[in-house]
Amino acid sequence: MSGAKGRKYEKKMKHQPTSVTFHTGDPGVSSSKNYNGAGAQQQERKYGGIQPQRDQPWTPSSSFKHYHEQSHYRDGQTSQGFPKYITATTFAQARAAEVKAMLKAVSNKNSNSQVFQALPKHMRRRAMSSNVKRIPRRLRAIAKRELEKASQQKKEQSKNKSRKARRRHGNLLLEFNRRQRKNLWLETHIWHAKRFHMVKKWGYCLGDKPTSKCYRACYRAMTKHCLLQDLSYYCCLELTGGENELLKALARLTNRETGLTFAAVGCLSGKKQGSLVLYKAEKYPLEPLGPVTFLWKPKKMSEDRQLWIWFHPALKQDLIPQLKTVCQCGEPVVQSIPLPEPSTVVSTVEEMPEPVSVGSKRKRKDGTPLEEITVKKFIREKTSPTLIPACWKSQTTGIVLRDLTLEILRYRLIGPLSHSVLSDALYPASLCKIFHSQHEKHCSWWPEYCNEDNLFLHERQQNLFQLLRGIASPAEISAGTVLGLVVDDPRLTLPRKRTKSMPNLSMLPDFEKVRQLTVEGITDETSASPIWDQAVRDDVTRSKISEQELNRMKMEILVPGSRLDLGAKESKIPILLIHQSGKLTGQECLGWGSGWDILIPKGWGMAFWISLIYRGARAGGLQEGLKHSQHKGTAHFPDDFPDCAAGMRFSGEQKKELLDKYKRRPPSKRPNYIKHGSVAPFLCPWQQLVEEWEMILKIEDERGVPEECRGALPAPESSGEQMSKGVKVKCADEEMKGSPGAADFSILRNRTVLKQISAWCLPTSGKGKRANCPASFSRQQIPSGAALLISAHNPRCLVWTRLSLLKKGSPTSHALICIPDPGDIQMLCADLTFCGPQEPKHKDHFKKKIKELKKKKLASSPGASCKVQGIGCSELPSKLISGLWPEPLPSITSHCTRVTIGFVLRGDFSLTAGCGEALGLVSVAGLLHMLSQQSSDRKGLVLVRNPASLQYRFARIMVEV
Amino acid sequence: MVRFKSRYLLCEISFASPNGWQHVEEKKLHRAILEAIQKAHGDFGVACCAVSFAVKYLNTYTGILLLRCRKAHYRLLWSTLAFIHQLGKKETCAITCIHVGGTIRTCQKFLIGYNRQQLLRKLPTCKSEAERTALQEAVRSCTLQELQEDVVSASEEDSN
């Protein structure tokens, strides 16, 4: 029995006497008899065991002890045998104790009923429950006590404030502050909380997925219209310093082999946003940190360069210490930035909650409504963890590291119409006509900013923004393009109803210019924006007119519904538009899922969000983001990075979650993974997989491979030969140590090697399929020596692969990727409807063990009372869970009939491709081993099997670079 | 009130030798009685009685036993009790029914009176002074001091 029911039962049985019997467990002691006092000691023990109640009804401790003392001298033959006679004293003691227990049981009425309920029917009176005087006088005292108790309980339950008081604006904000003390809220939190399932992740409250059914609708939005996502939880780090120092410092975290670095020409000018994977300082290719995107501030004369690094919050705790060491940053600088003093603002809020809770009428009378509004807006500032210093400075290199998390908001628009949504929602700022109003308080930065250079720039940006309307899809622009812009307050141009913005074909701009734009791209000057300036950002945030004020002004307008003209009060918001590339790899749907990111200074989140939503953008949560990256065929952080610390943490959590979910079902209602031959259905054992493949390779090596084959190298590989030898030596050293560390494997990110493997994966005679593979790489039969060399150099490497199923089936996460037998492929050739081989059912040897254990547990608890059983059952699964392999896993590669080379990370039916697709990680050694043995026309065929199924299904494996 | 109605049989077990008490347990008793019913009344009797048959209370120190049975068939159980001569294997015993009640509460009340009566009956037969004092002590300790007023009120309440 558990919970409320158990408690109720316990309360009911509190005064009831329990049975009193002898202890039968150990015969040696129990041979003594109750009628003499020798058993008294033992009786007491027994009582303690039987009666869980606090006050024992029998109270043997008092009566028996007393008796025990006086009778002990008489019969010293405690355990020799039984006396022949009965003493009157024992007799009397036993009866007396029983009478006492019975008295207690009888005298206490059933605790679930009230006094008047126990009265016979003819004595009941109206209003007895509330009026004590209605109850017979002899019962009044008890009834009074009961009534008081009830009223007290009621008082405790009720909130100390009325709902009206609680919902008052100021109190509500204070409550909100209290609630986001642990997990921060984004600015759009309340909007999301009404429409999304919220999850608490990475220190934020984030929308997971919409409450409405929208799997397909979101996909449609991504393909045909526009999906909007709030990515403000992404962390932004600002690095300021000399260009050379910055590049020198950051180069330690990157490696050229993985692709473009921070120093890429396109990115360095500030024209483009770049993305890369960071490694721990000089640890490449081991210990990756995770993927980041970065953005340089466009260059001006002789300035210090400014660099923004955007990354996922799961990465923060690993990345920041690394960056600090790389930049040689010392102790944190305490509040070196001229912020709008959030601390003081906070103090005003904290000290006097009075002005916050003032009603709307009084506020207007105050004359300084704006001040208060800003106070409210910044109320969330208090919740940001003040313990973590936001700024670090290096004495030697002069680099300043600043944490801009939540200072700049980031929204992502995905879909072909995202630009038309943007161009409908945003209006480039109107120029400042009245120059003499500079001394005015509101929007001070804009008139100052409006000098000739900047005006020229603004005009160009404006023209460009208009030009972008002519582009059919954002995929036409080169990836990562950055466009700066200054826009009007989006609330002023809000449509009355939610509309769906479509490209206006009649107003298309000049086609020539558009073509020029797509070919040449955006020039670097236009990517400048005042949003880079801290002072401007603060000013924009502070000068925002409150919603309330704006609505009041709208109300007072002479012609209802006309555009409000705020004049100099109107704030101009600097924003940055960053192009996001869509699907870059693969054959079908190239450019799918491209879109724009907008960076907005904080405080303006809801204004822009609503304005975008009113243009027909559909909002998505974390799940939609995941699906987007899956359809796009890119890895998603932290799910798909098991070699990063954050990824490992994530998969650990995921395992726990899945295990809990699994354990919630009874064994008969859940898959028995042992029988399905799935060794690790919740957590992929990458380490073991990689090690096993290393062993397999070694064994094959010993069997004898023609030595001269090793000399034959493909052209791209020869350059890295020297280095790779070094790697080999290093690997050997590590093996000598024989200490498998935390993560001894890594994901292969060397682009040349990846390209080579990718070329090998493609079938050579595939009916003209995939003709446009890079010609520079040999697509002929794999030179076995080269394959061996690659796998020897990367003995513990995994590689991201995409799998697309040939026929039915949709892979799930943790599915196995196996090498097909030659027989399987023959079957496939002979019979086109052949789905795939089946795994024979495995035997569950642990079932018996679990049963035996259970029996033992039962046998060891002699009382076999209900409680003991319950405990036994709950303790059991800590060691063995029925249906799961216990901890030392068997060999992964050879556990099933087909040899395993990897696991699926995420898989689903892909609406883009129209078949099951998955993203998986396979061992490089295993992949090359498989490829070298497959015939050229059936190259890259693998088998995929879900953990809860016995059916293997054919899939084509692709390595996309 | 709409409920399942039961009869509670308050019984006293007495053994020929004091050794018999050693192995008395609720479960064993339950089994023994059911077996006895089987012997006396056959399958029908067992089926009738077994529905809500339970040993509600057992005190091996005083030999008091409280059995529950459905109201319709308690006579079958009652009559069987006389035929039980053994519990387990060896020990000879006898079960006498001292009270039949409709609720546990009435049985408990009866038991209080019964025990008191027994104690008072024992008092004059005491042989030594020590025994007498012990008995007197026991009789005096039969009431709960702290619950005095509740007891009074409850007894009054019951009388109504």
Overall description:
The complex is a heterodimer of chains A (961) and B (160). In chain A, strands 12-13-14-11-4-15 form a 6-stranded mixed sheet. Chain A has a 6-stranded antiparallel sheet with strand order 6-7-8-5-10-9. The longest helix of chain A is centred in the N-terminal third of the chain and has 21 residues, at 137-157. Chain A has 35 helices and 22 strands. In chain A, α3 runs antiparallel to α4 and α4 packs antiparallel against α5 (88-107). Chain A has 6 domains: 17-107, no CATH class; 115-156, no CATH class; 233-403, no CATH class; 410-554 and 566-621, no CATH class; 648-843 and 885-958, no CATH class; 845-882, no CATH class. In chain A, β7 and β8 (305-311) form a beta hairpin. Chain A is an alpha+beta fold. Helix content of chain A is 38%, strand content 14%. The two termini of chain A are 58 Å apart. By secondary structure, chain B is α+β, with helices and mostly antiparallel strands. Chain B has 5 helices and 4 strands. Chain B has helices at 26-50, 74-81, 104-122, 129-140, 148-159, and strands at residues 6-15, 54-59, 64-70, 93-101. In chain B, α1 crosses α2 (74-81). Chain B is globular and about 55 Å long. Chain B starts with 5 loop residues before the first strand and ends with a helix. Classes of the chains: A alpha+beta (961), B alpha+beta (160).
